[in-house]
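Folding problem:
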Amino acid sequence: MALATALPPRSDIAKRDIGGVGIAALTREAALGLLDEAIGGRDHVKLAFCNAHLVNLAAGDAELRRALADFLILSDGIGVDIGSRLLYGESFPANLNGTDFIPALLTMQARPLQVMLLGGKPGVAERAAVRLAQDHKAHRFEVLGHGYFMPAEEPGLLLRLREARPDILLVAFGNPLQERWIAGKIDIRHASVAAGVGALFDFLAGEVERAPEAVRQMRLEWLYRLWLEPGRLWRRYVLGNPAFLLRMLRIRYFGRRSAR
């Protein structure tokens, strides 16, 4: 892929500490370029998409913060943008939510890729794989398993993954399970890019409806999801969003330690 500017090494990527999570300050093109390099060089990148919810989870969990330190973490949603404006005086260069970013990554790849899916309820990953295959005909998609496997099944899943060694592994367990699992189980032997993708399979399979484009443009997709699934998401948004904002204000005015 031709890029207008040279890409920095991953160790030199500018990051912004948002509540203890180092989120990369990258444009969409630069983030896609870094992953393109990793895939082309058969390197290894652990990829996460950080929204206000993940910051809230990590703020009180030192083990999770340590695990996330090994990830390329991209900004996802208006919450972390607000945090960036409060702490750094400007928004992130782009909103890189996984639901839009992963299809963009697949679209820009000229080389045919092998992509494996793991997670979701039984049957959901299969429907998501069919949708991905329809939209991205150059690539091959295979389901590794659903997200409710038994502990005794895990060694077999990891062995299959090592034997296949896909270009991209998509893991949909939800936060923070998917990030913990990738951090603890996945390395360069298993995939070039291992990405925690949250609800992506549900959206692709039609299990959950995405917000209309106008709502997404207003950065209110979280509100639409709350309207669709209030019983499951009210804690994340009704309690979590004010807690996140308060945490950002405490960091700004009283220092980082008081925000945890």
Remarks:
- The radius of gyration is 18 Å.
